[in-house]
Write the structure tokens for this entry.
Amino acid sequence: MSGWVSASAGTMPLVLVVPHGGDLSPAVLPDRGCTGCETANDANTQELALELATAFERRVGRRPFVVINRLHRRKFDANRERIEATGGHAPLDAQWVLLHEQIDSAKARALRVHTRALLVDLHGHAHSVARLELGYLLSAGALRLPDSTLTPLVAGASVSRLSAQAVSGDRGAALVRGPRALGTRLAAAGYPSVPSAGDRAPNEGDAYFSGGYNTERHGSRAGGAVDAVQLECNFTGVRDTPASRGAFAEALVTALLAFLGDHYGWPASG
Ligand SMILES: [Zn+2]
């Protein structure tokens, strides 16, 4: 059972979680039969996370903590509460507990590297607009509000802690779509992103993932010193081929290092 989750230790205040890229479908497990449950994987996200970890190591000699659910989503959904995650198959309860223990452990260890940390829940989407979607537990409707109205809502988002303590001094809406926001950094690198300075919110009717179970449970809305963002990657040019993944991993390393530097003060200068 422990082989169904892969956890590797890191040396920087960043935790990568990959819930929907699993490649194992053990015959001993029934397919999840719950009505309306999603069973399609987020293709190539496991490969993307490994590429990203390697790119960090090459660039700064540090690795993120990485927790990968190895089970195919047909068998287990690692971004849902327990019943939907397991499809009600009680023997998988222990797997669900183990997965979240591994994430909790990675978070705790990341906080020994630095006083605060960021968790990225890495996904892939198939929505019609080809752009990255960053989910902070702020709905599309909330993001369509002006900055002054959005700002107080960020205190209840998955970057709640950051909204009070970012060393940049950025607060509220600036953290999710200001010049130093993660989406803005990624857009500047050639990967259109929402929210970002140039694409402030999904339009009415656009499909958009605002953040799911892991982002709620493991981000700072629930307290603690680890913020979270759900990063939903479009397919073409981002995660479709090894070349795409390699190039995107480099851009993501640059953006995440800037984000950690600007807002978390990592690595400490001087
Ligand atoms: Zn997903």
In short: The first strand starts at residue 5 and ends at 8. The two ends are 45 Å apart (CA to CA). Residues 2-264 form a domain with the Aminopeptidase fold (CATH 3.40.630.40). Residues 242-264 form the longest helix (23 residues).
